[in-house]
Amino acid sequence: MTKLAWGGGGGGIPHRDTPENNPDTPFEFTAENLKRIDAIISMYPEGHKQAATIPVLDVTQRQHGWLPISVAEVLEVPPMRIYEVATFYTMFPRQPVDKYHIQICTTTPCMLCNSDSILEAIQNKLGIKVGGMTSDKMFSLIEINDNYYTCPKDIDQIIDELKAGNGPLPGPRNGRFSCEPAGGLTSLCEPPPGPGFGIRADL
Length: 203
Description:
This protein is mainly alpha-helical. The chain has helices at about 30-40, 55-65, 70-75, 80-85, 110, 115-125, 155-165, and strands at about 5, 100-105, 140-145, 145-150.
């Protein structure tokens, strides 16, 4: 039951125990991830495991897809300390999500760049609205597993590739990189002049 989340988030800012996520929810790290966590914690002074909260939550989410509150046990901190972090950062879901958790950026810059068209394309493709879930337990940009896809015309292809089990290559498909403007370059369109440019000949 994958969520199509408007802007991200893990089920609201306040944490409330649910049948799916409460202190009795079972959770075990894999042996490999336990080694990673030990390595992370070893980077902090003794008695300061709490400082490793965010990187440990990241490991947890990469294994589990979302954050069960029982992760507090590995850090030996009160659950409230985990609540404080997980409820502050919207990229930490605190309820089960499906295999692909799709989130739409709705900040002003993204909306000005027509992020609404990406949202509409996803809704049309999956047949769900914001906050909805697909019945095949596949989909809960595009930001997918920390990779970004930004072209509305490619939504159908991206979702079809995910359904087929093929991860699309990360990055925009329109050739843009970093902070280039959506309409193309408007300055710095030519190679910079060489040394001595603009300097008086008598100097």
